[in-house]
Structure formats: structure tokens, C-alpha cells
Amino acid sequence: RTSWKRAQCIVDEFRGGCSTPLSRLRQIVDNMVVEMHAGLAIDGGSKLKMVLSYVDNLPTGNEEGLFYALDLGGTNFRVLRVQLGGKEKRIMNQEYKEVSIPPKVMVGSNEDLFDFIATELASFVASEGEGFYLLPGQQRELGFTFSFPVKQTSINSGTLMKWTKGFAIAETVGKDVVEELQGAMHRSNVDMRVAALVNDTVGTLAGGRYEDDDVMVAVILGTGSNACYVERADAIPKWRGPLPASGSMVINMEWGSFTSAHLPKTEVDDALDADSVNPCDQIFEKMISGMYLGDIVRRVLWKLAAEAAFFGGKVPSRLEVPFILRTPDVSAIHADQSPDLKEVIRVLRVVFGIQSSTLQMRKMIVDVCDIVAERGARLAGAGIVGILKKIGRDGGSLANNGGLENHSYAAAEERKKTVVAMDGGLYEHYPKFREYLKQSVVELIGKEAAEHIELRLSKDGSGIGATLLAASHSSFV
Ligand code: ADP
Ligand code: MG
């Protein structure tokens, strides 16, 4: 029989291990800022890669012409075409197609992956119809959104540092992903030039900036998690090239690999990490992103079953299956207002094949979901405040600023509105997660400063952003 005392003990212990009081969040913010500095100083200076994006100009609105984008970054990939009409006409036309990547392609061969992508792109190009037109003599051009850690070597080249989010194709690591794509496009007879290689966060930033000049930061909370922001070029010691005319450069943080001794990590997280395809890596991502939240919950439920006979004498076999519980199920459970917790009943039955449960058990399961989501959201919020602090937009610079001139300068900076473009299925579809995140930002920087910060859902901005960056780096227009 279920040992309620033991079960409550497991949940309480887990809650304690996951707790994110303000004091702890502040330490994480400070760690984030320190790591950002270290990663900007030299390559390898920090777990935070702080990748130079080679994007030193964000969209202005003047971009014009037909451009394609291809977004590879998670479970789905998307191809997109946009007809840009300049300042007046803006986005005149757009079309996209979404394709899910067969799991075996994610862990298969390099050539198969890129051939799969190029083939889908070929069929999409073949369907180009009315409303899309190239200038005479213009070759089709593409912005390649590739959301894995890449060591960027120019605006349209970069080598893969490692796969994440369940992709594992050893051959690709160290290769220039643009060359790989260009080669596969050649094999598939797609006549197209890759004009820009962009991380999805950079695409989201570009897409956001096209709409609003106040966008300074972009954050993805989807299958994985990452962030980028606009940095002053003279604050990037490891940048050896000439200072760009704009004076700034977008930095792709690769924040998924952030780690800190202050992260509230539990033995459940350690076990998830040990069983993952990339152990000891992407620790921050494994606590905050959509790929993992569901599995953290599953692992706690497994513990309840194994150690407190939560579902009877035997552990239901499907509780043992990694990733069987998905984050959308967690958010559905979390959103359920029904008095008898129908969503929990549904998830237990459909996902785990568990037919009976009591209300007391279901309440406990909701609790576990709440603990995991709250922790993830608050950590993501701390990460965002770290970035705001690094660029002096957190409202905190007045306090430690002595000089009068600097004082008024800081005050002016602070009054500026700062928009953080947010994208990703987790952020978009999980209202409780959004609330917890926002709440942590307000707690960290204070209510007044938070009025100048807007977290704005920038849905699918990264695809449009990639076409905009292809346009601004075109060889033809
Ligand atoms: P990707 O990150 O793969 O590019 P998305 O940004 O669309 O794609 O994010 C998809 C992820 O978002 C899913 O893996 C899932 O973890 C999360 N997600 C999707 N729907 C929901 C939902 N209803 N509630 C919570 N998370 C969700
Ligand atoms: Mg994505």
C-alpha cells in the first residue's frame, strides 16, 4: 500500500532541492554576468560560449526582394519564403512548410540529415508561385537558422561544436554546416546561395528588431533554450577584427550550457543528465527547457512509485520509459481547473496506462509539476536579468554609479524601454511558466525598473529574421 508519509517526504525533499528564493536567484544572476564577461574575454573562457554572430547590423525595414529561410533546431524543421517590400510595403507575402524530422535521421549519418533537408527544400522551392519574384539575374538566397552551438567564422560559415536536444551525429561535429547544406543542395539540384548562417535566437532578435527598435535581447524557450543580445563591440575583448561601424555585435550566448554551483540541482537532475546523450553538458538547458521538464516530472513520479508504492506494489512499466511524459502534458495538468483534476486522470491513463488514482495522489502530481515548472521559469528569469544587468538595462546601475555625468547617462539608459523577444513552444504554450518567469524578473529588478522591460512573444520571428539577415547580406541586392 502507498506509504503517504514516505510520498510526502519525497515531494517535500524535492521541493526543497528545487527552491529558488530571491537570494539564490541573485547569486545566479551574478554568476551569469561573471560568465558572460569570461566568455567574451577569450574563447573557452567560460562554459558560456558567447559566440560572435557576425551580425553587426540588425534589420532596418528597408530589406527588399525574395528570400528563403530554413530553420533546423529541434523536432521540426521549417522552410519559409518571404517577399520583402522595403520600408513601405514590408512583408508582402510569405509561405512556409513544416516537416518533422524522423528520429532515426537525428542520430543517423551526416549526409542523410542534410540530404533529407535539401530534398524538402527542393520540393518547397518547386512550389514557388504567384506573389514571389526574383530580380533579374538574382539567385535565390537563404538564411540558414541552425540552432545548435556553432563556432561562427563569418556571416555565412561556421563549424558545429556539438549537437544538443537529442541530435547525435558524430561526423558533423567540426564541419562547416553551411558547406554541408550547400553540398546537399547541389546534390538535390537546388540553385540557392546560403547568405547567412544564424542561430535561432539571432533570427528572433532580427525579426523582433524589424518591428521594434527597442528589442535588445532574444530568448528561446522551446525544445532547448538559448539567448542572444546586442553587445558593444568594444566590450568583446576576444573580437580581433575591425570595430563595426554600428559599434555593436550580436552575441549568441549558448546559455544552455551555463552552469553554476548555485543552481538548485537535485539527484533527479543528476540522473536525467547521466542518462542523456550529452552528460555533464547543457546543465541550465536541462533545468529550464521543454525537452526535459516532462522527464524531470516522470522521474519524480517513478521515485514515488518505487519508494512509496504510489501506484500500488509494482512500478507501472511505462513510468520507466524516458521522455514518455512530455512537457505539453505537464502544462495541461498545470492548467486544469477541474475539481477532480481530470487532466491528471487523462495523463495517467493515456501516457502511463494507470487506470486508478485518488484525488490526494493527483494533487501531489500537480504539486510536482508546479515545482518543476516554477524552478525552470525562475531560473530562466534570472538568466534574462543577468543579460539586462550586463548591458545596464536592469535599473540597478544608479546605485553603484558615483560620477555625476555617468549618473545622468545611466539614468537615461535606464529610462529606455528594453524589449526581450521571446519565442519557443514552452514559453508560448505554458501560461503558468510565463507567469513564474515574469514574476522572477519583477522580484529581481523591482517593480519600477520592470516597467521598462517588456517580455514580448515574438512568435516565429526567427524564420522571418533569417530571411531579413539573408537580405542584408545578399550578394545581389
Ligand atoms: P523547437 O524548440 O523544437 O524549435 P518549438 O519552439 O515549437 O520548437 O518548441 C517545441 C517545444 O515546446 C516542445 O518540445 C515542447 O517541449 C514545448 N511545448 C510545446 N507545446 C507545449 C505546451 N502546450 N506546453 C508546454 N510546452 C510545450
Ligand atoms: Mg525553434
Automatic annotation (TrEMBL):
Its EC number is 2.7.1.-. Pathway: Carbohydrate metabolism; hexose metabolism; Carbohydrate degradation; glycolysis; D-glyceraldehyde 3-phosphate and glycerone phosphate from D-glucose: step 1/4. This is Phosphotransferase. The keyword Cytoplasm does not apply. It comes from Selaginella moellendorffii (Spikemoss). Coiled coil: none annotated. It is an enzyme of class 2 (transferase). Residues 217-471 form the Hexokinase C-terminal domain. Keywords: ATP-binding, Glycolysis, Kinase, Nucleotide-binding, Transferase. Residues 11-210 form the Hexokinase N-terminal domain. It catalyses: D-fructose + ATP = D-fructose 6-phosphate + ADP + H(+); a D-hexose + ATP = a D-hexose 6-phosphate + ADP + H(+).
